[in-house]
Amino acid sequence: MSLPTAFEDASFATAPEVLLVDDDEVNLMLTALALRERGFLIVEASSGEKALELLRNHAPDIVVLDALMPGLDGFDTCRALRLMPGLDTVPVLMLTGLDDDASITRAYRAGATDFFVKAAQWSLLAGRLQYLLRASRTLIELERSKSKLARAQDLARMGSFDWRRSERGGVGCLVLSPEALRVLNLGLQDRADLRTLLRMVPPDDRRVLLRQLQAVGQHSSVLTVDIPMVLLDGRQRMLHLEAEPEFNEKGQGAGYTGILQDVTDRRAAEDKILELANFDALTGLPNRRQLIWRAERALEQARRLSHQFAVLLIDLDRFKVINDTLGHAAGDEVLVEVGRRLRGCVRHSDQVMEGTLEVTGARSHRALEAIGRLGGDEFLALLPEVADDEDAERVAFRVLEALRQPIFVSGQECFVTASVGLALYPRDGHSVVDLLRNSDVAMYSVKAQGKNASAIYSPQLAGQGREKLEMETALHKAIERNELVLHYQPKVDVRAARMVGAEALMRWQRGGRLVPPGEFIPLAEDTGLIVPLSEWALREAAKQARVWQDAFGFDDSIAVNLPSRLFERSDLVEHIHQCVTAVNVPHRMIQLEITEDNLMQELQNVIPSLHRLNEIGVEISIDDFGTGYSSLAYLTTLPISELKIDRSFVRDLGVTPQSSAVVTAIIALARSLGLRVIAEGVETLRQMDVLHRLGCGVMQGFLFSRAVPSEDLQRWLEQTVLPRKAPWIGVALDGPQGSGGPLVMGRKLRR
Amino acid sequence: MNPESECPQLDRATVARLHELDPDGRHGVVRRVLTAFEASLQRMLVQLTAEQHSGRAEVVSSLAHTLKSSSASVGALALAKACAAVEQRLRHATAADLDAQVLLLIRECQFGLRAVRAMLQA
After folding, report:
1. I need a surface site. Which of A57, A463, A709, A719 has the fewest CB within 10 A?
2. Predicted model pTM
C-alpha cells in the first residue's frame, strides 16, 4: 500500500525535514518509520540534549518533541531551542499524553507551536505536521512581506496609521506603524497621539487642517491632504495624508485607516519645476511664459473691471557691447543687477503662478504686477492697473532713474541705460500680442531717437517703423544705384588762412531728397550695411584726393569716419592699400577718424589695426574728443596723430567758463603728447578767436564752410580763400602773419 | 487470565498496523521494532528491579511513562494500561504503595517480554 505523501504540493521543493526527539527507542523508531513512509525526512534524537546538539549545526523545518523525557525534557528543550539563532519561529510540536492537560499548557508556555496526543495513528501526526509546516511557511511569507512592505514604506518615507473614533468624543485613538513613526521622526516610546501631531502643524495651517478634518469626518469621506509639519527636531516637512473611512456594523463611521508620506522632496521638486517653467533662472524674475500668463489675466481683469493696464518694454541700450567687451559672465552679472533694480520700480509680486490667482477681491489683479525678463536684455514691466499715461510714465521714469547709477562688474564701472516702450490697454491694443508689439514699436522709436528714454506707443510710431523698414531696403541698393555721395568740409589753418585737409561726410540722395547722416548711419550700423558703406567711402575719398591733387596740387589728407567694427576687420589695411594704389596717391592722403567712445569701447580689438595703419602712413584722428571716457594711460601709447575737440565745447566757448577750461586742457594734453589738435563746429568769429588764443589754430565749421560737394569745395577755395574774401580771414589774427604767405594752397592751384 | 498457563499475546490490530509500515516485509520493520522493544523491556526490568524498595516514585513514574507509549505501540496493551495506571497513581498520590506498583510493573513487563518473544519466534 502506498501512503499519500503529504508534501508533493508546490510549496515544498524538497521533502520537509523533521527533527524527532523521543527517549523511547521503540517510539522513536516507529514514529520515524511512519513519517518517512509519508515523505518526511527524519532526523532522530533520543534526548533533549542530543536534539540541542544537532540543532546547533542545522535547522530542520519542524521539531517534534516528546514532552516527558529523562534529563532535559521536552519543555526545557523547547525553551532552549527558542533562544538559539534562527529557531525562534521554527514550528515545534509537543507530544503529550492523552490525559495530560498540564503538559499542554506547559508546552505552549515553553514556546511550542502546538501539541499532539501520542498515538499510533501516524496519519494524524503526519497531517498535523503538514498543517504546521504550511502555517509556518505562511507565517514566514507574511513576515517577509511585512518586512518588504516596511522597507518599501521606509524607502518611500511612508507609514500607515489607524484612527478610531472615540465613543466619548475627544480626539480618538491614533495608532501609527513603526514606519509612520520614523516618518515623523518619533521613537516607539514617544507620545504620538493626534493632539501631539496637530501641535507639529504650524498654527495657520492647523486651523485649515482642522476645518478639513471636521468636514471630512462629518461625511465620512475620503481624506487626501498635504500638511506642512515642523518635526520635533525643527525640520520642516510636507506630509501627504491619504485615508479611507471605516464603518462599524451599523454603518457608522468608526475611524480612518490610511498612509502618511513625507513628500517634502517631491514637493520641492514640483516647486522647482514650476519655478523653472515660470521664472528666469538667471535673474529669478518671471520669464516670458509667466509674463504672458500674467498679462492675459491682467487683460481679463482690466476688461471686466473697465480699467487700463500697461506694459513697459525695457530694452537695455548697447548691451551687446558689455557682453562683447567684458564677456558673457559680466553681461549676466549686469542683467542680474538690472533685474534687481527694476524689481524695485514696481510692486513686484513673485507669488502668482499658473492657476493660483485667487479671483477674490476687486484688487486681486494687483498681485499680477511684476517685472520679468522676456529674454536677452529685454525686460517687461506689467502694471495691471493704471489711471492714465502719466501713471505708466512714472514707472518708466523710475526705471530710467534706477539705471543711472553705474553697475560694478568685473571690477569696472558699467553705465547701462535702457529704452522703454509703453503700451496701454485698451487704447494701444486689445490683446496681449498687440500690446507687446506696440510697446516694442514705442521702444524702437526711443532707440532711434538716441536711446535712454521712454515713449508711449502711438500709431505714427508704427508708421515710422514701416518707414524705417523701407529705408533699410533702399539703403541696401543705395550703393549700386550711386545714390551715395561724399561731401567735404575743409579743415582750415586760420593763422595761415589755408586749407590743411578735409573731412569726408557721407550723404544719401534718395529720390531727390538728401537724407542726413543722422537718419541712415545708425540704421546702417544696426544692419551691418555700415561695412560696405565705409569701404565705398574709402574708395571715393582716395579717388577725390587724386582728383584734387591733379586739379590744384592738393597734398593733404581726406579724413574718413569709420566705426570701430571696420577697425576690427583684418582686411582694412589691405582695403585702404588697394584704394590708394588704384588711384596712385600716397597712403597718407587718407586719414581715419574714429570717435572717442567707439575707440575706447573696442580698444583691445582695434589697437592692432591702428598700429598697422600707422605703419603704412595712414593717420588716425580721434573724433568728438572730450565727450567719452578716454583712458589717458592709453592715449600716451596709442598710435594716433590728432585730437578733434568736440563741437559741444566749441559751441559754449565764451559762454561758459568750463568750456574754455576743457578746451585748454585738451590743447595742453595734445601738445604734451605731441598730437595735433583741431576744433570742429566753429561757427562764429568769437569762437575762432578764443580757440586761436587758447592755442588751437586748425578748425572746421560753418564759419569757414559747410560740408559741400567736391566741386563746390574747389570753387570755395578759388573764390573765397584765395582772394581772401572771407570775413574770418585776417580778423582774429593779431599775431604775425605766416612767413610762407597767407594764401598758399599749393603750387599747382589753378585759377 | 492466567499468565502462568496461557502465553500472553500482542494485540493483533496493533501488530497489523506495524505490518502496514512495511507491507512486503522488505525492511524487516516488525522484527526490528519487536527486537528493540524486547531490549527495552529487558532494560526496564533491570531498572525496575533496582527500584524495588528505593522509594523513588518519580523514577518509577518516568519508567512507566516511557514504557506506556512503546508498549501501546507494539500492542502490549495490558502492559500499557498498567503503565498508565501506575503513572496516574504516582502523579497524585504519595508513594505509599510504591513497592506494590513496582512489583505490578515488573510482572506486566515479564508478561510483555514473553509475548514479544513468542511473536519473534513465530
Report:
1. A57
2. 0.47
